[in-house]
Write a sequence for this structure.
């Protein structure tokens, strides 16, 4: 990452992510997509970042305000 880059992790609960994906696929989450989401969920949990945003815990406006503060 270039010097001065601000690392921000945006995440959500696995069930929330599955629900969001299923809304994009006609309400049915294909098994392959579900497996992929399960395998990849949390892969950035231990990454060093300046800010971690959990999308269920704040509005997009609140997240934007927090990002602008760093």
């Amino acid at each position: 990452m270039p010097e001065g880059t601000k690392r921000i992790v945006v995440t959500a609960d696995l069930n929330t992510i599955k629900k969001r994906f299923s809304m994009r696929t006609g309400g049915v989450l294909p098994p392959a997509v579900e497996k992929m989401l399960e395998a990849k969920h949390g892969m950035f949990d231990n990454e060093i970042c300046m800010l971690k945003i959990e999308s269920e815990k704040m509005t997009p406006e609140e997240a934007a305000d927090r990002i602008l503060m760093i």
Observations:
- The CA atoms of residues 9 and 60 lie 14 Å apart.
- Helices lie at 14-24, 31-40, 60-69.
- DSSP finds three helices and two strands in the chain.
- The chain has a mean pLDDT of 94.
